[in-house]
Amino acid sequence: MEKMKFAATCLFGLERLVGEEIDALGYKRLETIDGRVYFEGDITAIARCNMWLRCAERVFIVAGEFEATTFTELFDGTKAIPWENYIGENDAFPNSGHSIKSQLVSIPDCQSIVKKAMVERLKSVYGVDWFEENETKVRIEFFILNDKATLMIDTSGEPLFKRGYREKAAEAPLRETLAAALVKLSRPRENVITWDPFCGSGTIAIESALIMTNTAPGIRRRFSSEHYRWIPKKVWQDARKEAADAVNLDTTFKAWASDIDPECVQLAKDNAKRAGMENYIKIFQKDALSIFDNGERTTIVCNPPYGERLGSIREARELYKKLGKTLSTLVPPWQMYLLTSEEEFERLYGKRANKARKLYNGMIKCYLYQYFKDFGDKKPFEGKKPHDKDFGDKKSHGDRKPFGEKKHFNKDEKRGEKK
Ligand SMILES: C[S@@+](CC[C@H](N)C(=O)[O-])C[C@H]1O[C@@H](n2cnc3c(N)ncnc32)[C@H](O)[C@@H]1O
């Protein structure tokens, strides 16, 4: 089958996980930059990647790439793309985009040039002067980086973090894509409980159950490209059948989800049910500061309040200190993966993490503090502050910054993590 180029976009810090998911589906990674992974595949990739990528935000087809330092170049490059292959005479084709480190900076002007160029192209192909744009919506996105324009066709529609099970969310919910990433990084196993003691809407526990039952994250939702006429219906039918056949409900995996707020407990229960995962998650009300030793191997995966969006920073810091005291009473081999924007977390908690990985929760820079060795053997935090220049030598935080702060990295560069 003919090869096409795709881009899977993601939150900063999740590129490696998205790349691994693309590998697992059998498509070929081409290049990774901040927030996106380019890859090659045949037409089946459109349906299968939307269906299976747990950590990506959207899947795009790359329709064309060219240098664009002037509006004329942007117009000519856009007009040269065979849009008629993707857009019917009555289809709607809105566009939006971003420009980073490039000479073309005005997004509204770029949008209007891209629209004009597409209209010119399609007018000559379809022999009409006016487009009704009242049939299928084909959303176009441009991405201009270092004066290179990439014109893409959105195949997802609603972003992929919208799985369809979370109709309502608690305050400060975690995106499903980031929750899935946290779970994957925690390496969930059948004989180890994944416990989120700050569960809010239950996202982490639900994503862990979806992963452990091999349930495709997109199985309960629809995608914009299901309506694209040039994609054979069979492509989507096959992908849906593959997803349905892959589900394995025969697992002993258990997640626990608890929260101090009874409304969150009810919300998590409703969401787990909607996701079809209620049999794999025990959901209950509990103050995380009274976590008990459940006598079973357990991995805590959570994002407690940061104080940025919920409560005050002071309260969050108090909570982290108390959490350190509570968890120190637990018997090994418990592990913990905790996401927070608090840079002083390790000092407050009282123990240095084995690894801290920089991740972005939307626009909030966070760290995933990973405790996977000697979790119960809690020693006082004697080290330097986490962000001291010489903190932790090789184990120190990586200093990857998103666009605008640092040049993009090449695909082999290790980034964004303490090791
Ligand atoms: C940032 S939210 C978690 C959001 C969740 N990951 C989601 O996707 O909806 C933090 C949660 O911690 C809960 N919380 C705050 N203090 C708590 C405590 N001491 N024990 C248990 N839960 C607590 C809040 O009720 C809130 O639901």
> Any idea what the shape is?
elongated
Within the largest sheet, what's the order of strands?
2-3-1-4-7-6-5
CATH architecture of the largest domain: 3-Layer(aba) Sandwich
Task: Give the strand content.
Answer: 15-25%
Which fold name corresponds to the CATH topology of the largest domain? Answer: Rossmann fold
Could you state the CATH homologous superfamily of the largest domain? Vaccinia Virus protein VP39
Q: Largest sheet at a glance?
A: 7 strands, mixed
CATH class of the largest domain: Alpha Beta
So how many helices?
Answer: 10
Radius of gyration: 23 Å
Could you describe the 3D structure shown?
This protein has 419 residues and is of the alpha/beta class. It has two domains: 4-154, 2-Layer Sandwich (VC0802-like), CATH 3.30.2130; 176-215 and 232-395, Vaccinia Virus protein VP39 (Rossmann fold), CATH 3.40.50. 27% of the residues lie in helices and 21% in strands. The protein has ten helices and 14 strands. It has helices at residues 15-24, 44-52, 71-79, 107-126, 176-185, 203-212, 233-246, 262-274, 313-327, 345-349, and strands at residues 4-10, 28-33, 36-41, 56-67, 95-100, 140-145, 148-154, 193-196, 255-259, 281-285, 298-302, 335-340, 355-361, 364-371. S-adenosylmethionine is lined by residues 169-170, 172-174, 197-201, 203-204, 259-261, 264, 287-289, 303-305, 310.
